[in-house]
């Protein structure tokens, strides 16, 4: 009787006894010893293999089969046997080699009929070594909860399925008169372990290979990934709201692991057994990620100790102030994003869509804003708070927005429910807690200079006319502030209201730059940011068409073109008036600065300054008209040339007055009122829907019924306000360089004329002997000079003619531009064009 020792036994306690006839094979190993102490650790490869008994000397196939089955029991636990051994390429001491699993070579003299079956069973041993080695290397906290859950599933498969199967085969093989054969072993393996084992092997090897690739990837690529992410966001969303952290992780964690499992799941949808196993695996492995997702969607918290979750909480930038604190929320929570070598985002398919990412990000942001206002988000679904009554939202259907599984078919529906809930909560915070509708009305009255009730912007301009005519660096800011307080902020203030708080945060200031210089500086910025924000997507093409198709012959009206007035007074420096430097600033507190962001306040300010300049010009020009219709201007005995000159001055003044009246009317009634009313209607509808009112709401003389079919979206509401401001900016010609320059030239001509007219009273006295004698008869140092008076009248006519020619030139260019742009871009321009065409 021959004895064959186990390849890993130095005691000879394991032997195989056989006789020729009858064929009975007995294994004398103690059952289950291969599984002790735990998980049958793989060999180190340091043992010296014992030479096997030659199969060529064993002609009986039954004996060969028994020997191979004996070896395969070792192989299934990761060891090599006598006749099934590791290939030379396998290095048991290498973690990578062990994780990829050993290839086995089979004794060449084994019967061909047994060799194919042996190879299939031996592959299970290879995959077992791989997944067990994965447990050894990856079941650590640094690889994150998702990978630990994957390891737990692998361990559960090994201990509850794989090892019991090996024990079953060993027990059956050790049974006397056993009929176990290779076909039976192969069949059992194929039915019980091959499918899950092959999928686990595929997953762990992909994870390991990806980790190796990450270690080889240069860190410098992170900057390129960030730039690529920004470009994609601008292309897909035309927004930078979806900020991303593209810092590559050292290891495959979280979404990357789930993405790998999901890809395997998608690739095996046609195989019912594989699909069922992988679906269960994905749900189990993603359970921690699902918990993090629910925590974010329900409470707005990021509980992510191993940096695996889609949303990452980062430290805010150091340059955040109360003026731009909206950027704090845009940068506090960002999307964690990694990309493969092809530049594709490594994400589960449920999160690949930019729209989905934005929704998830906004839900948590809104909830965090509410929490920062001192409101417990958990209490909102069940009742009201003590400070701000928000009410019950989804209180009877709270589970409608809690995710049951990432792979569930209702994932998108539940995410949409969570998004609706967060939107309604944030909307109620503003509509009820901060009285959004009253706040909008206040913003309209304050910024758009609405003459409402006791708000007296006209009185402010009239009382401050002297200061506003001074150079910006010489005007008394304290006096202007007192006038503004008396006629504007003082009468708008309502005790114990949010308006009162805002007015206390309002201040007047003098900017260093002229208003129009500031506008032109904004438009000089590359169109990617400045003009795309104001003009929209067609900013570049619009400017290109305008420059190619419309040849403006505009030029700046400066002091060299209009000499000092014939009266001797200086008519230069009109563009240095304080009105062009005065600015009204409002610093909004949290959370109002999230609704009215920094760029919105900048738009409000630009629109308001433009209106204030127009209102100032109307008052100043009216003062000039009153001056031209009293005193020496109405003296009946002036000479014919002087009377004719005065008549021409009044005609020209009326022409300028008509322009100011039509321009002011256009800004207020053709641009602001329609745009604001349209936006206000949408905001009111959103407020009504958020509060679940079902009643008629009056608005500007008409009413509408709220509709429950339209849901509320806070982001869209903010965008409606911004779009309204953009439309007003565009309709007010504040986004077009050429029209701004032309308008500035026109206004400078008006101011030059007004300065000229106000400086002529003394000159008119010198032109008439009676008036001269009345005013200067007692002054012996002066004498009436008829010859010099003719020169004075001639200079006055020359100056007026020059102003008139410049006016016609600039107005012609302005009307040409209005007509062209009105046809091409904005038909609202045509309204002003037709009115000015009539009056001019």
UniProtKB/TrEMBL annotation:
Gene3D superfamilies: Gamma-tubulin complex, C-terminal domain. Residues 436-836 form the Gamma tubulin complex component C-terminal domain. It is found in: Cytoplasm, Cytoskeleton, Microtubule organizing center. InterPro entries: GCP (IPR007259), GCP_C (IPR040457), GCP_C_sf (IPR042241), GCP_N (IPR041470). GO terms for molecular function: gamma-tubulin binding; microtubule minus-end binding. Keywords: Cytoplasm, Cytoskeleton, Microtubule. One of its GO terms (biological process) is meiotic cell cycle. GO terms for cellular component: gamma-tubulin complex; microtubule; mitotic spindle pole body; spindle pole. Transmembrane segments: none annotated. Residues 69-428 form the Gamma tubulin complex component protein N-terminal domain. Belongs to the TUBGCP family. This is Spindle pole body component.
């Amino acid at each position: 009787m021959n004895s064959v020792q186990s390849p890993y036994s130095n005691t000879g306690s394991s032997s195989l006894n056989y006789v020729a006839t009858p064929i009975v094979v007995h294994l004398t190993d103690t059952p289950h010893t291969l599984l002790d102490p735990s998980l049958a650790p793989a060999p180190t490869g340091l043992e010296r293999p014992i030479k096997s008994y030659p199969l060529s000397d064993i002609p009986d196939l039954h004996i060969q089969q028994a020997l191979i089955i004996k070896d395969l029991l070792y192989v299934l636990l990761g060891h090599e046997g006598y006749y099934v051994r590791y290939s030379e390429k396998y290095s048991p001491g290498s973690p990578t080699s062990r994780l990829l699993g050993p290839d086995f070579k089979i004794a060449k003299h084994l019967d061909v009929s047994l060799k194919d079956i042996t190879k299939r069973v031996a592959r299970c041993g290879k995959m077992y070594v791989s997944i067990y080695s994965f447990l050894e290397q990856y079941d650590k906290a640094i690889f994150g909860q998702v990978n630990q859950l994957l390891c737990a599933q692998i361990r559960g498969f090994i201990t509850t399925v794989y090892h019991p199967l090996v024990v079953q085969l060993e027990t059956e093989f050790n049974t006397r008169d056993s009929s176990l054969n290779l076909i039976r072993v192969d069949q059992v393996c194929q039915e019980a372990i091959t499918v899950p084992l092959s999928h686990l092997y595929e997953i762990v090897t992909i994870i390991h290979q990806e980790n190796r690739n990450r270690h080889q990837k240069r860190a410098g690529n992170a900057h390129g990934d960030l730039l690529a992410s920004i470009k994609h966001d601008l292309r897909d969303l035309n927004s930078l709201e979806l900020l991303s952290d593209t810092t590559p992780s050292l290891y495959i964690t979280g979404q990357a692991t789930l993405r790998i499992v999901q890809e395997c799941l998608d690739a095996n949808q046609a195989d019912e057994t594989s699909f069922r196993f992988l679906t269960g695996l994905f749900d189990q492995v993603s359970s921690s990620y699902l918990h993090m997702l629910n925590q974010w969607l329900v409470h707005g918290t990021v509980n992510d100790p191993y940096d695996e979750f889609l949303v990452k909480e980062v430290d805010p930038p150091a340059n955040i102030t109360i003026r731009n604190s909206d950027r704090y929320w845009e940068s506090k929570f960002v999307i964690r994003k990694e990309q493969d070598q092809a530049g594709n985002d490594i994400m589960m398919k449920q999160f690949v869509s930019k729209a989905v990412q934005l929704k998830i990000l906004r839900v948590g942001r809104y909830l965090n804003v509410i929490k920062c206002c001192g409101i417990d988000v958990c209490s909102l679904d069940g009742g009201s708070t003590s400070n701000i009554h928000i009410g019950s939202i989804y209180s009877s259907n709270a589970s409608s927005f809690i995710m049951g599984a990432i792979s569930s078919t209702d994932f998108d529906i539940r995410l949409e429910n969570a998004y609706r809930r967060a939107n309604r909560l944030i909307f109620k915070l503003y509509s009820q807690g901060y009285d959004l509708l009253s706040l909008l009305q206040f913003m309209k009255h304050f910024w758009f200079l609405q003459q409402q009730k006791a708000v007296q912007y006209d009185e402010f301009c009239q009382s401050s006319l002297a200061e506003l005519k001074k150079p910006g660096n010489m005007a008394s800011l304290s006096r202007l502030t007192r006038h503004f307080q008396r006629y504007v902020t003082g009468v708008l203030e309502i005790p114990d209201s949010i308006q009162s708080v805002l007015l206390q945060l309002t201040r007047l200031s003098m900017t260093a730059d002229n208003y129009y210089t500031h506008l032109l500086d904004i438009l000089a910025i590359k169109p990617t940011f400045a003009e795309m924000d104001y003009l929209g997507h067609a900013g570049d093409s619009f400017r290109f068409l305008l420059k190619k198709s419309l040849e403006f012959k505009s030029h700046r009206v400066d002091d060299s073109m209009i000499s000092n007035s014939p009266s001797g007074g200086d008519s230069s420096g009109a563009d240095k008036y304080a009105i062009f430097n005065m600015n009204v600033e409002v610093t909004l507190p949290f959370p109002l600065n999230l609704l009215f962001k920094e760029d919105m306040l900048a738009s409000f300010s630009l629109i308001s300054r433009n209106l204030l300049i127009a209102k100032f010009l109307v008052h100043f020009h009216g003062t000039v008209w009153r001056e031209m219709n009293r005193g020496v201007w109405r003296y009946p005995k002036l000479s014919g040339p002087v009377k004719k000159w005065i008549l021409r001055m009044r005609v020209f003044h009326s022409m300028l007055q008509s322009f100011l009246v039509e321009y002011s009317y256009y800004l207020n009634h053709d641009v602001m009122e329609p745009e604001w009313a349209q936006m206000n209607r949408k905001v009111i509808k959103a407020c009504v829907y958020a509060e679940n009112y079902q009643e008629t709401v009056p608005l500007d003389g008409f009413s509408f019924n709220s509709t429950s079919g339209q849901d509320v979206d806070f982001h869209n509401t903010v965008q409606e306000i911004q779009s309204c401001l953009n439309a007003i900016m565009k309709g007010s010609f504040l986004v077009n360089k050429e029209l701004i320059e032309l308008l500035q030239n026109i206004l400078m001509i008006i101011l030059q004329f007004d300065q000229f007219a106000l400086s002529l009273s003394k000159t008119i006295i010198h032109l008439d002997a009676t008036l001269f004698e009345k005013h200067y008869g007692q002054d012996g140092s002066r004498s009436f000079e008829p010859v010099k008076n003719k020169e004075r009248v001639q200079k006055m006519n020359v100056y007026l003619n020059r102003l008139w020619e410049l006016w016609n030139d600039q107005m012609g260019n302005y009307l040409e531009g209005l007509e062209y742009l009105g046809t091409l871009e904005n038909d609202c321009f045509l309204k002003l064009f037709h009115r000015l065409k009539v009056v001019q």
